[in-house]
Design a protein that fits this description.
Helices cover about 55% and strands about 10% of the residues. The chain is an alpha/beta fold.
């Protein structure tokens, strides 16, 4: 019997998992291989999960011990840890992903979010990471804020596949999609093959509702709008995605093998305990998209997820919802800008935590490490 995760493919959606760490990647009974058998077709690395695994376990100790005499900094060691995890996950999906959907089999690893605002350094690190991992199904995670669109364009022009992270608004999505199209155009002009490049835009939903709902409840007004901003934003970005990859200019790129930038629905974990666990995951089922699940949400989906097409349609109603929120004193634009800044800050903090934990590991193994 097919699982609910496997049935998502009937509607053209690819379920990915938002978690990667050494032991879990190789745990056939309880880790990633089991979820792949249950229908998961891709993964996005989570820096916070890596920091936790380094702190609480010894899975990385042997590699760190080997790297200590070879590398000078915690950052160099971090890159090697990430490289091995990414290679292992990429290989697993190359061997097992069904490949029925264009979004099957991909693994995404973030470029250091501390580089946000410096497109040249972002692209340089993305290039080096892609070369180090050396797998065709690797996505490079680049924050879509600040210099992100410029970095996304340049990375795409170099033939790199990109996961644009932290897309919280239709306006930011338009910028990200335009950057991808420009990058593809440059790639084709240089004689490259656009068919080897993929791009995904990560749209986190629950944080939008958290911010909007806090404002509505603080004002004690229009409470019927609680929990509406996230899904309304998803509907509008979906419409933007359809429009961005249509028309003669796009048709010419598609004829050369280019694929559209697809939406990845992230932030699907429900924080409000009054709401069902699958409120978001069940509401964004649609073709040529990714649903990114935490391990917990994936397990809940496996035991009772309702699979039916829910994403497409409702664009006019979504626009009315945004207008009603604005009239109620809630600014989706301000919320998106706040979440963008918070997303980059949290990502930078997670990378700094990994560096600190590696430094501690080095000390425990009998030596110091420089910055």
């Amino acid at each position: 019997m097919r699982t609910p995760l496997q049935r998502l493919a009937d509607y053209g959606q690819s379920p990915w998992i938002h978690y990667l760490e050494r032991n879990w990647i190789g745990d056939d009974q309880h880790g990633l291989p089991r979820l792949v058998r249950c229908g998961v077709t891709g993964a996005v690395a989570n820096a916070a999960a890596l920091a936790t695994a380094l702190t609480r376990g010894s899975a990385y100790d042997e590699q760190i011990r080997t790297l200590i005499p070879l590398l000078d900094t915690a950052e160099e060691i971090r890159r090697q840890l990430v490289r091995v995890d990414a290679q292992s996950a990429c290989d697993l999906f190359l061997e097992t992903a069904p490949g029925d959907q264009p979004l099957d089999g991909w693994v995404a690893v973030d470029v250091d979010p501390r580089l946000a605002g410096d497109p040249a350094r972002i692209v340089d690190q993305a290039q080096r990471l892609a070369e180090a991992v050396g797998r065709p199904n690797l996505l490079l995670g680049i924050a879509a804020v600040d210099g992100g669109p410029a970095a996304i364009e340049e990375a795409t022009a170099r033939g790199l596949s990109v996961l644009a992270t932290g897309v919280f608004s239709p306006n930011r999505y338009r910028q990200t999609a335009a950057a991808y199209r420009r990058g593809l155009t440059r790639l084709v002009a240089a004689g490259g093959d656009p068919g080897t490049v993929n791009s995904v835009a990560a749209v986190p939903l629950s944080g939008l509702d958290e911010k909007a709902d806090l404002r509505l409840r603080a004002m004690d007004r229009r409470l019927e709008l609680v929990g509406t901003l996230g899904l309304a934003t998803a509907k509008l970005i979906r419409a933007e995605s359809r429009a961005a990859f249509a028309g003669p200019a796009w048709d010419r790129l598609a004829a050369r093998g280019a694929t559209p930038q697809h939406c990845l629905w992230a932030g699907l974990t429900v924080v409000d305990g009054r709401l069902p666990d699958l409120r978001y995951a069940e509401a964004v089922v649609g073709p040529e998209t990714v649903t990114l699940l935490s391990p917990h949400t994936a397990e809940v989906f496996l035991t009772g997820g309702q699979v039916r097409p829910t994403l497409d349609g409702g664009t006019a109603a979504a626009r009315r919802t945004i207008a009603e929120l604005e009239r109620a004193g809630v600014s989706p634009k301000l919320i998106a800008e706040t979440l963008e800044a918070e997303s980059v800050r949290r990502g930078a903090e997670a990378f700094a935590d990994i560096r600190d934990v590696i430094e501690d590991k080095r000390a425990l193994l009998g030596a110091g490490i420089g910055h």
